[in-house]
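To assess whether ligand presence alters the predicted conformation, the chain was also submitted together with guanosine-5'-triphosphate. Input:
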Amino acid sequence: MGKKKKSAAPAVNPNLRYRPEPRPLSAIDIFSRLQSKDHRRALGQTITLLESAQPADRQLADELIDLAEKNPPQLPTFRLGISGTPGVGKSTFIESYGLEVAGQGHKLAVLAIDPSSSLSGGSILGDKTRMEELTRHPNVFIRPSPSAGHLGGVGAASRAAVLLCEAAGYDYIIVETVGVGQAEWQVHGMTDAFLLLAQPAAGDDLQGIKRGILELADLIAVNKADRLPDAAKQTALELRRGLHLAPARPDDWTVKILTISALTGDGLPAIREQLAEYAKKMTAAGLLQSRRKSQRAAWLRERCEADLLLDFRRFLNDQTRTTDGIQRILDKQSSLSSASNVILADFYKTKTTQP
Ligand SMILES: Nc1nc2c(ncn2[C@@H]2O[C@H](COP(=O)(O)OP(=O)(O)OP(=O)(O)O)[C@@H](O)[C@H]2O)c(=O)[nH]1
Ligand SMILES: [Mg+2]
């Protein structure tokens, strides 16, 4: 009887199964997911992609923006910007107003630009509790602030997010921001109408509304009129006076100042009417379309600046441009400006030699 032959030891652990790497989704795959019924997750992931600074993500994001621009929604969409100082009642307003809008059959997307919280996302947690009912509404998509701080900026990601929400079938887009820094201008520069929320306040300090912001508004609402009705009316009068000092609008639109309560819902139908009238009038005169057109041109400018800066930073971080390298240039030059000229000349040289 011959010895039993020892079976050869398996070369690989049989418990390990070969799993192919999942194929990365193409822009067309993602775009068709956005247009499917169950698009929420895809939309969330897409907006994250728009915020990414990774070169591969940026390329995919560009392809998605391109697809969205080439396949615009069939029905008209409306983009509403909302701003106001901290605590004025923006989230409370969006909860009440958003429910009305969604109740009318619109698909509503709420995007927030938060210039102050790049990483903490603190205000979003607050918003999720303040917009509890809206968050659960099947026709509503709420997206916390894109994180600030990387190149291309919050503005670029938000502009693209608006387009992709529309591609996913949302026809009413609210872009909200707290009135800090350049945020109001950014929101104004990417929406069809700008609603400024104010709250009852005395004389001098009209709740810190910055000069120039009043002029951006297409509609102004003094909130919390339930608690302080007289002060709200008084504030409305003072804002009206402030508006009279502003230059005349080229579009012949009269900016109304309403008193409302986001908490009780008083005055919200008047807001809806005003915004609908504004949209109708501006569309008829072709002004809404031209506003979007010039916003797209502004987007291009921002994009060029961002691309150039990205490119230049890459060049500066290059091995030859380490701190030592920069120091060497400085040592050879008599001034900062001449050192800067040397570096820039080198940079432009790389641009003419490399496509
Ligand atoms: N009485 C009254 N209180 C309101 C009204 N709207 C908002 N509030 C209250 O004001 C506080 C701030 O409201 P938010 O909706 O969080 O304000 P916000 O502008 O989103 O605040 P930030 O996100 O921090 O900038 C909350 O306590 C709200 O309940 C209103 O119409 N009437
Ligand atoms: Mg808020």
